[in-house]
């Protein structure tokens, strides 16, 4: 960055005055995890104000959903949060099922749980890798953890590929159940994969938590109070990192989550390190849930929906519902209003990333520019879901 | 606080409010929502009441629905994370009206949500500190989620 060395705008190295500098970060910034622009106002190295500019990835999913039928939209829903595509499909079909009072077979509920938990592991792996890469130097050279994490994530994507034939956007859910059953041998492959990940997560934990640079960059940075967390409506690991014991899988169980035993990690520190700890425990808990679901997987049909002769065949009666699922980034909600036709009258996404990102202007001021990167990574935004 | 207690408290304080269980809430178990419809004038007072008296401190989301000739309806959902009580707040603005009280003084989370609502529906929130478009560009014409806005509306110079 070059500065105009005019007397009015000169910024000295031993700067301690009240002059302010506006710095533009993004929309193409290596640490932005997507297209996000932050207009930072700086005093020296310290951020005093931040204006977040979003919307670069906006496709107006909510308008689009009014033009697509209940059979068509679930596979488009996966494009909101493309890092955890299973989650948004899940929320959409749950909302439609709630209005139509459509029964979901037990086997489909378990398959949905398996897909959702594998997705959580895959999503957290991507977060771990990219966040550690953002803090690059802290880990002795940058991409180490990133490449390890991506390797593990690939193994999960392989599982999804053999389950649905796609690696990123799945279309696994449909109103009334799931579209695919697990192929022969899949359960064993899945058990092997999660066993490897379970072991390696502990290695990465050791690698990170024995590293004083990592601790210095994560501990005491980006503090979110419980009061602010609830007021802004942040969810998921951020909320639990701020001392709120709330997880939809436990507090309002859906899709047979009450059948599985798992713990909900809660940290009270509210800083980047607390959010990191919550996610690291969630890896293990998701692995536990997948194991239990595979062990107890009931027999039976995978969908209550008859075969379709046309995409407009599913009609949902007049009514409204709000379905919410605990995605990797928190509460993903779908508020659906049906008018009796084959398409929704109105659909609203409560994107977890949107609400989580809204906390940034409240917590960044007071931090150094380098901390902005660490804080943003700890929020784990996916811009497909922020902009929808 | 149970739903029954919440219902009684709301009835005592807000005579004009209409309280009913949310028609279909997909979240089974102890999380059941109450739908509370208040007149537009009670929008912010009711939000303060929900936050302070009912303990719904978690701001989930807010949005609007365009009911064509019946006008816009503004919706917000707030939760009490400790007891599982959820409140769906609704207010009907009436035909041709696009002014609504802002909830930002009560919930900071309403800031971005109401900007989105303004962007998509043109609802002008009275008392919002920074009401400008959030997802669309500043030069966008119209508010896309209104039913009167066609999906294929041209937007020069792109189409």
CATH fourth-tier homologous superfamily of the largest domain in chain A:
Cytochrome-c3 Hydrogenase, chain B
Order of helices and strands of chain A: EEEHHHHHEEHHHHHHEEEHHHH
Rg of chain B to the nearest angstrom? 17 Å
Strand count of chain B: 7
Number of helices of chain B: 3
Rounded average pLDDT of chain B: 84
Oligomer: heterodimer
Largest interface, with counts of residues having CB < 8 Å to the other chain, equals: A-B, 49 and 39 residues
Q: Give the domain tally of chain A.
A: 2
Distance between the first and last residues' Cα of chain B = 54 Å
Query: Spans of chain B of 5+ residues with little confidence (pLDDT < 50)?
Result: none
Helix-strand category of chain B: alpha/beta
**Rg estimate of chain A, integer Å:** 22 Å
What does this structure look like?
The complex is a heterodimer of chains A (388) and B (159). Chain A is an alpha+beta fold and 388 residues long. Chain A is built from 15 helices and 8 strands. Chain A has helices at residues 61-65, 73-77, 85-100, 106-134, 144-164, 186-209, 212-218, 226-232, 237-241, 248-251, 272-296, 352-357, 360-363, 369-379, 383-387, and strands at 21-25, 37-43, 46-53, 173-174, 177-178, 319-327, 330-338, 344-350. In chain A, helix 4 packs antiparallel against helix 5 (144-164), helix 5 runs antiparallel to helix 6 and helix 6 (186-209) packs antiparallel against helix 11 (272-296). With 159 residues, chain B is of the alpha/beta class. Chain B contains 3 helices and 7 strands, in the order αββαββββαβ. In chain B, strands 1-2-5-4-3 form a 5-stranded mixed beta sheet. The N and C termini of chain B lie far apart (54 Å). In chain B, 47% of the residues are buried. The interface between A and B is large, with 49 and 39 residues.
